[in-house]
Structure formats: C-alpha cells, structure tokens
Design a protein that fits this description.
methyltransferase activity, binds S-adenosylmethionine, alpha/beta, transferase, Rossmann fold, seven-stranded mixed sheet, Methyltransf_12
Length: about 250
C-alpha cells in the first residue's frame, strides 16, 4: 500500500462514497433484483457497485462513465477479475454529455457534474428508461448548518451546496420520479470513509517521514482532517435514494 514515490490513491477504499458494507451489499441486491438489462453509472470512479450489479444480472450490459483515466483503468481490472470484463465497459466521457438511456442509472457523489442536485435529478430523468430506476447518492445536511458550521468546512461551502433530505426527495418527485427507498448513512459510515480516504497519506507518511514530499503530504492530510473532524462531522450527511420512473 506504500511506495517510495508517493501515497497511493483511494487504495484503502472499496468505493468512493460513505457506505457500510451491509448497505452496499443491499444496494447490489436491490439493483440486481429489478433485472436491468442496461446499466449506466455516471461519475462511476472505478465502478465497484456497477461491476457487482452487472455480475448479478446475467447478460446485462453496463457502462461506467468517468473523466478520470486512472480510476477507469482500476474499474476495467476489477470487471475482468469478476468475470464481467466483456459486459462492463468503462468509458472516458463527460457524464453530463451522456445521452443513452438505461434500465438502471447510478449517480453517486457525482451530481455536481450536472450543477445542483435538482439539476442533476432533472437531467438524469430522461436517461432512465420508462419503468426503470435511478440510484442517486449525494451529500445532504444532517442538520441545518449554522454560519459557524459553514465557516469550519471546506473553503467556500454554502448552505445551498446540499439539500436537507426531505427537500432532496421532493426535488426527485418534482423531476417525475417516485421514491422506492430513502436512506441516509450513519456517522460511522462517514468516519470509516474519511479514515480510509486519509489512510493513503497516513500510512505512506509513517513509512516515509523524511521524504522530500512528506511535509506537503502531511499538511494536506492535517487540513483534510480538520475539515472532517472540526468541520462537516455531524453536520453533513450522505443520502442514497432509489427512484423509479413510471412506465410510459
Ligand atoms: C465522489 S466520486 C464518486 C465515484 C463513484 N460514484 C463511487 O461512488 O465510488 C466522483 C466521481 O465523479 C468523477 N467526475 C467528476 N467530474 C466528472 C465529469 N464531468 N464527468 C464524468 N465524471 C466526472 C470523478 O472523476 C469521480 O470519480
């Protein structure tokens, strides 16, 4: 997990969003249960969920869309490992420009490619075939943030960056969807995610304390930990909503 050149990237994460293994397994099961024959994941990263759903649905054709070549490469290797390399295609593309509808659309942690969450939901609706589903995941306020809360988070964070959960679901309904499952993660899922996110740097720093890059890596890790433990912890949540598009 460490090299002398620099920290690994997402080396301690199974997927790039906060989620407990049991919840992830349930998402795979529920997505697969609808037997989608076409699946697209917008902003897929390395598409762990996409790979696992495709592996559960014989014959399904899946596309993972992302702009990061390194992550797409990890996705391709994972799909081959799971025996679905011929059915899961990782495509370097702008997610907001994808136009091919699918039975199952996944968009987790990538709403920002469309603008706001409401703009994302509206843009994703026509990508879901009538009778199909959207699994959407993104940040939501766990509590109404105060000005002091906002000031402790990432620079430039505003109240308008994320919705409260009920408002997110209202926006999904306004876009034409019906909600099939609405859930928000527990704090320990965020803590596990942030710990694993920082582990690349922390493990590398322990092995390379005097490396010429160590001071910069340490400063980056310390800053990120501050945004988490003194910033968004307990204030920012993360929601997953499974949405259905009515049949035509
Ligand atoms: C928070 S990550 C989520 C990854 C993945 N959905 C997951 O849950 O593991 C957001 C992803 O969006 C991708 N991304 C950012 N802008 C994009 C764009 N315009 N088009 C496609 N992907 C984009 C990033 O490269 C990154 O992999």
């Amino acid at each position: 997990m460490t090299t002398h050149d620099g920290p690994t990237r997402y080396g301690f994460l199974d997927c790039n969003s906060p989620i407990a293994p049991w919840r992830f397994d349930r998402q795979v099961r529920e997505c697969a249960a609808a037997r989608p024959q076409t699946i697209v994941d917008i902003g897929c990263g390395w598409g762990e969920l996409l790979q696992r759903v495709a592996a559960q649905v014989p014959g399904a054709k899946a596309y993972g869309i992302d702009s990061d070549l390194e992550l797409l490469e990890r996705g391709r290797a994972g799909a081959v490992e799971k025996g679905v390399g011929d059915r899961v295609e990782f495509v370097e593309y702008r997610g907001e420009s994808w136009t091919e509808p699918a039975d199952l659309v996944i968009c987790i942690g990538a709403a920002h490619v469309f603008g706001t969450w409401a703009e994302a939901l509206a843009a994703l609706y026509p990508l879901v075939k009538p009778g199909g589903r959207l699994l959407f995941g993104d940040g939501v306020w766990a509590v109404e943030p105060t000005e002091a809360d906002l000031a402790r988070m990432w620079p430039g964070t505003t109240r308008g960056d994320w919705p409260l959960l009920p408002d997110l679901v209202d926006d999904a309904v306004a876009a034409g969807f019906r909600p099939l499952r609405v859930e928000a993660v527990e704090q320990h899922e965020w803590d596990d995610f942030e710990s694993a996110f920082l582990a690349d740097k922390e493990v590398w720093l322990l092995a390379n304390p005097d490396h010429p890059e160590a001071a910069a890596v340490r400063a980056g890790a310390d800053e990120h930990r501050g945004w988490w433990l003194r910033g968004h912890r307990g204030v920012l949540g993360f929601a997953y909503v499974t949405l259905g598009r009515p049949v035509a």
